[in-house]
Amino acid sequence: KALLMNSAETVVYTNPATLPGGLAQITRIGAGELRVNGAVALSSAAWDTQALSAALSFGAVEADKQLILNKTLTVENFSSVARSYTITPSFRYADDATSAAVLVQVQNSVTVPAGGSTTVPVRLVINPAKLPDWNLNGGSEGGNGALLNKPEYDGYITLTDGHEKLSVPWHVLPRKAAAITG
User: Fold this and answer.
1) Residue 27 backbone class (left: φ over 0; alpha: ψ -120 to 50; beta: rest)
2) Beta-bridge mates of residue 86
3) How far apart are the C-alpha atoms of 182 and 170, rounded to whole Å?
4) Which residues contact 47 (CB under 8 A, 6 or more apart)?
5) In whole angstroms, what is the distance from residue 49 CA to residue 131 CA?
6) pLDDT 10s digit of each residue in the chain, 182 long?
7) What is the spatial order of strands in the sheet that 83-91 belongs to?
8) For site-directed labelling of 168, which of 12, 23, 65, 87 has its Cα 20 to 30 A away?
9) Which 8-state DSSP code applies to residue 147?
10) Strand ranges, E, within the chain
11) How far apart are CA 34 and CA 9, in angstroms?
């Protein structure tokens, strides 16, 4: 499963006919369109250590002050030589990155020994003051999936070396909340 997700095609559009260039949200496409030939060619894989999923789901969270969320990515090397990967976090949409409401922090490289594995911490830092107003409800707009576009943040953690590329989608649905004390 991880190999299929790690090698998926991530350039998937919402509706190329009516919304040209509109990339689909990760919660709608998962890792992307599966590419079996790409999965078979991989000699490594990456996944969420705890959830055993090839995606990092940080969930729906409420933040009344800066919130730090942590996940651990396991990277396994099935080959007979050590592999060094460059790690690049990205956002699906440029406006999410420029808002600075969510920051993705991950080391910029990792070396995985031959036939071994290692872990890489991934941290999201959420600044509720920069989050958009919450526009979701269970009433009249309860079935309007497009409303998720504004409050959802998503992207990929991409690991590359000279031979292959692993893509691990991440996503979070943060909501700014008031600090209430009793």
Assistant:
1) alpha
2) 109, 160
3) 35
4) 2, 53, 54, 73, 74, 168
5) 28
6) 454 455 555 555 566 666 666 666 666 656 554 555 554 556 788 889 898 888 899 999 999 999 999 999 999 999 999 999 999 999 988 889 999 999 999 999 999 999 999 999 999 999 999 998 887 776 776 666 666 667 889 999 999 998 888 889 999 999 988 766 66
7) 56-63, 165-176, 153-160, 83-91, 109-112
8) 65
9) G
10) 44-48, 56-63, 67-77, 83-91, 102-106, 109-112, 117-126, 153-160, 165-176
11) 6
> Which residue carries 């250590």 as its tokens?
49
Tokens encoding 126: 């959420």
Place of tokens 């790409």: 38
